[in-house]
Amino acid sequence: MKTPLLVIGGGLSGIAAAIRAARFIPDVLLLEKHHRLGGLNSYFYRHGLLFETGLHAITNYAEPRDKKAPLNRLLRQLKLPRDTFNFLPQRQSEILFHGCASLLFSNDFNLFQEEIKRQFPASADNFAALVAFLDGFDPFVIRPFRSTRQFLVERLREPLLQEMLLCPLLYYGSSHSNDIDLSQFAIMFRAIYQEGMFRPGGNIKEFLDTLRNHYLSLGGSLRTGCGVARIVCSGERVERVILADGEELECDYLLSTIGYHETLRLLAESTAAPPAALAGPRLGFIENIYLLKTPPTAPPLSDKTIIFYNKGDTFSYQRPDQPVDFHSGVICLPGNFAQLPPRLHQEIRSTHLASYPLWRQLADDPAAYLAEKQSSSLRSLVELESVLGPFRETILYENNFTPVTIERYTGKLEGAIYGNPAKIKDGDIGYRNLFLAGTDQGFLGIVGAMLSGVSIVNSQILPNL
Question: Quick one: which of 4, 197, 214, 337 has the most CB atoms within 10 Å?
Fold first, then answer.
């Protein structure tokens, strides 16, 4: 079998790429090794209830009238009307540094600006100058890595404000320890602070089903439960892929959305280690889910949608030397979006930095691994209650996902959801008809991931097909 375009990976970047290509190219084929689409943003069932994985909130909110906004540009590229989805904006979120300061933000950037004037009056002018710089900065120009931490030291000269600005942006998009590339910072600053966050009115399954059905309606083909074992090349061109069951598929172009190192593993001739320039410690996370048996009429534990907390005035964002670092984290209350109907149960989710090597070692001893998962869930609960107040007596169900779990179900090496620290912005990894999109291209967040797939199709594939 031969297809003009083969897309590996049914996460949101792969789905968007396949949809964009299917608008113009017949016989696009999308391969996903799991039995359902979504990748990092998927779902599972427990006790007859659907639980979302990955999705806290979608960044880059925009009103329909803002035609140039990333969200609306994405929908036009996919030929999906805005009213296909019922997008619900966040209520408000918070950056909370215990004993130091708190900053509220929402989808109205004016709130964040006023909060900074209130908490850091001496830095208000410097912050305004920072915003003006970012508004005129093109983050999509390919440049060498530039440290945002050093940049903020020079621009703001207020250590606590620097740490508070970085906390949400690193947690929501950095693959670098204790830093983020300035271009990535500019993208995430706009995505989170200037545009804001939202979610679809339904659940992630309904969102994925809408994308899947739209892709199929355009004539695209889809195979789930279909893993790729090898990519076979001749010189600088891909000739075919060999599936896990031995079937061979030829293609004119191949787009991989599974990550750079993950793609190298599939290349038949790439038995050597990846280039040193692309090596580096990968950052892993643990996510905890708590479902509460409170009635729908009970008031929420907080009026915040997401709380980024940190204990102290210095934020550490690196692989911890313990299984989990509880000094900081992300607390999400999925029911706290505007216009969201009351849910049967309240849900709380937490995310903390975690050490993949330590969890991988624990996994060799199932009893020790389970004990550490239970201990980590309890420690996270303590941190959440210090922010939200007591709720453990109302927990109906709880679960958590370590970096080992994430690696098993997503294929991301070491469970690193933000991929390799070095990014390949143009998607070119040295082959004439093989390109990379997704996390290791440097586009992050759900809108960013989908735009990543669209951008590579537009720049590298459609002009040649």
Answer: 197
Q: Which residues are registered as beta bridge partners of 328?
A: 310
Burial 145-169 (b: 16+ CB within 10 A, else e): eeebbebbeebbebebbbbbbbbbb
pLDDT averaged over the chain?
92
Distance between CA atoms of 25 and 458, rounded to whole angstroms? 12
State the Rg of the chain over Cα. 22
Per-residue model confidence (pLDDT) at position 382? 96
Sign of the torsion formed by the C-alpha atoms of 371, 375, 380 and 384: positive
Q: Which of 222, 219, 214 is nearest to 80 (CA)?
A: 214
Q: How far is Cα 31 from Cα 207, in angstroms, rounded to an integer?
A: 19
Instruction: Report the pLDDT value the prediction gives residue 55, as an integer from 0 to 100.
Output: 78
Q: If DSSP codes are grouped into helix, strand and coil, which group holds residue 222?
A: strand
Please tell me the distance from the alpha carbon of residue 331 to that of residue 303, in angstroms, as a whole number: 12
Helix (H, G, I), strand (E, B) or coil at 276: helix
Q: What is the DSSP letter of 438?
A: S
Alpha helices in 189-259 (DSSP H): 204-217
Q: List the alpha helices (DSSP H) in 218-286.
A: 260-266
CA–CA gap between residue 53 and residue 305 (Å, rounded): 17
- Tokens 């586009």 belong to 443
Q: How do residues 290-306 score in pLDDT, each as one tens digit?
A: 999 887 677 778 899 99
H-helix or E-strand containing 328? Answer: strand 324-332
- On the 0-12 / 13-18 / 19+ scale of CB atoms within 10 A, 65 is exposed
The residues facing 249 across adjacent strands are 241
Task: Quick: pLDDT tens for 58-91.
Answer: 999 999 999 999 999 999 999 999 999 999 999 9
**C-alpha to C-alpha distances, 283 to 122, 262, 275, 372, 421, nearest whole angstrom:** 34, 16, 19, 19, 9
Q: 235: phi > 0 → left, psi -120 to 50 → alpha, else beta; which?
A: left
Integer Cα distance of 226 and 34 in angstroms: 7
User: What does the pLDDT read at residue 422?
Assistant: 86
DSSP 80: -
Quote the CA–CA distance of 438 and 399 in Å, as a whole number: 28
Q: Which residues contact 50 (CB under 8 A, 6 or more apart)?
A: 43, 44, 203, 205
Q: Per the structure block, which two tokens stand in for 442?
A: 């440097």
For the record, the structure tokens of 125 come out as 């002018």
Nearest in space to 291 (alpha carbons), one of 47, 89, 57: 47
